Amino acid sequence: MKSIEKLKRLTGENISAPAAPSAKDVQLADLRRRIEAVVARRQSAGKAAQETAIARGNAGLAQIVPGEEIENGHGKFFLASGVLRGASRHGHRNISEAFGFDMGAAAMLANNPGIGDFSCSDALFLDTETTGLAGGTGTMAFLIGLGWFEEGHFHVRQILARDFGEEAAALTYLAEIAGQKKFLVTFNGKAFDINLLTARFILNRLESGLALLPHLDLLHPSRRILGHRLANSRLVTLEAEVLGVQREGDIPGWEIPQRYFDWLKRRDPRLLASIFEHNRLDVISMATLTAHLVDIMTAQAIEQHSHADDYLAAARLLLHRHNLAGTGRILNMFQEQSCTFFSLQSKKKLAQLYKRTGRLNEAVQIWQDMTACSPPDFHAVSELAKWLEHHAGDYARAKNTVEKSLLEDNNFSEEEKESLLHRLKRLNAKVGDGG
Predict the structure, then answer these.
(1) Which of these, 323, 301, 322, lies nearest to 311 by C-alpha position?
(2) Which of 332, 287, 298 is nearest to 149 (CA)?
(3) Which of 60, 220, 231, 291 lies in disulfide reach of 98, CB 3.0 to 4.6 Å?
(4) Thinking of the domain 55-297, which architecture would CATH place it in?
């Protein structure tokens, strides 16, 4: 109340009554009420339509993808389930052939000796589909594919957060499954999937031991063992060139994030069907790729789908990790191979491995075969001459080897010729020719 009005009350002066609202004010108030009523009705109708679309989309999803809605303490999510029987084929292999792989070799691939104490049924194969390919805290893994071996079959579970509000429930289920396994198998998971999931657990204030599990990331050993003969080391390339898996109508990875955003707007389950299949194949391929790499590491016989240089690359990896026994098993596979069996580059690699493991006689045999071929190879001539000079003490034969290679048609560079001439000069002095 204003001061002047207080004084009038104290003195008993009349206080004028408040002015009645004008007709204009009444009209404005009525118009405001009508507008608010219209907006409220539209919001209610929009919300009901959205809820109907979500329900329709969720129901349609279950018809297209074998699965069901799951609920836990953090909400709901969609879970697709499948089983590949042991006789099921994936590329060149039956699933049963991927079961029971050698854990010592798996430990070598992971460079983690602890994995050797587990069994293949302790492995959790994991792959994610995300709302972005760059990662970061704004990226969510909306689909998490899991796989494991159980009783001779391969089980696949795919966890879908149908919208952002279902992420916590989806992650909770992932943590439950991961808690039952002892180590992870991924493809590029160390750099992407596990870091992303760890961040999402933190943002949702959820506990997870996922990042603490021992980890076999197949990208790195695949690149070291198979990369020498491939255009790139992407999983889809390994599938086609190594595993014999041909995907038909596969969705490109770059298209997946936009498909999910379209699903959120339109709730058309057909948008997600190809993403589920893409993810399912990724998980299965990781299992057969693991078995393939383990077969190479354990010196299984070379078959039509294997490559000699794959085994040599595996031998180098084993030697780098100080596994002489494993290196020796692979080298023993090639003792009877002829000069024409390997490419020139393969023979160089094999001879070098023999030399590094102290099996000089076998290395010498390869160098002799290579120098007998035309044109002679500089590396073989140089190595054979060094062995004859420094180990056999046969200076004359070393001299003849170098002279013969220089006189024949060869592809030596000027630097290589200079190196051999320098060696020849020293050998001439040793045999007493004085030149």
Answers:
(1) 301
(2) 287
(3) 291
(4) 2-Layer Sandwich (3.30)
User: How much is the mean pLDDT over the chain?
Assistant: 89
Fold held by 308-431: 1.25.40
Structure tokens at 380: 């073989």
Q: How far apart are CA 399 and CA 427, in angstroms?
A: 6
> Structural domain boundaries of the chain?
55-297, 308-431
Packing angle between helix 270-297 and helix 308-320, nearest 10 degrees?
70
What does the pLDDT read at residue 38?
74
Q: Which residues pair with 158 in a beta bridge?
A: 80, 145
Q: Do domains 55-297 and 308-431 have the same CATH topology?
A: no
Residue 48 has pLDDT above 70, yes or no: no
CA 5/CA 28 separation, integer angstroms? 30
Instruction: Tell me if the pTM is above 0.85.
Output: no
* Residue 160 structure tokens: 């879908």
Q: CB 143: neighbour CB atoms within 10 A?
A: 23
Please report the pLDDT score of residue 435 as a whole number.
45
